[in-house]
Protein: Ribosomal RNA large subunit methyltransferase J
Organism: Neisseria cinerea
Amino acid sequence: MLSYRHAFHAGNHADMLKHFTLFLVLQYFNKKDKTYWYIDTHGGAGLYDLGSSEAQKVGEYRQGISLIRQAQNLPAELSDFALHIQKILPSSELYCGSPWLAQSMTRATDKLRLFELHPADFIRLQNNMNEVGLGKRGQILREDGYKGLISLLPPPPRRAAVLIDPPYEEKQDYRRVTDTLKTALKRFESGCYLVWYPCLSREESRKLPEELKKLLPDNYLHTELHVHTPKTDGFGMHGSGMFVINPPYLLAEQLAANLPALTRLLAQDEGAHYLLDSKIR
């Protein structure tokens, strides 16, 4: 299935958690001179028009990036994130996907490998990355991101940040995430793997973090941001999570300092809360 289009959801609360976490991870990677690769298994279009009919249909960005832009007195890292997003976007009517954020933070010596299967989004991703001047340091591939990731491991510099964020339209995505990571860790155990997932009432969503913990039980970070109480009919996403294998050692401390403010900012009812659990070597 290729029906999912992130244009309907760009800039929502899930993007805030995902992109803030990615921002912190790439900041850490940049502290060392050594080259690294950024690999994105589900790149999307790279850049989204918040004035488009898709974004306006549901208006999820109003409860995400719009609140971040209006906020004052944010904690240091969250404030840095908000300023960086503002700096890298050509217009306030736009919001970035993960590839756009990553290309803005990676350095001239770092490499990007971006996968996207949807034909229309693949073309948009190519055009957007060309517009921003990605050049020869990046490759955009219309391939299955799970298989594509494995084919790249281990990357030549033996240093990489990998984002895995499928749409989870189908139940098999949950299994494919864990199976792909099992294989990835065998080929490249030291990689930093970031997995985004939706918080839903369905069993697969609830069980995914525990399945991921089994892969490397002594070096992970798990966080969730719930923006409202689950609906009584069990329908819809009430939050999202990030699971990081081989996280930077400062990540837990940084998230602990910023998640309370982010949760208050994005809360849609009194059921809003966050979770943070980690074991870091």
Observations:
- The first strand starts at residue 37 and ends at 40.
- The mean pLDDT is 94.
- The chain has ten helices and ten strands.
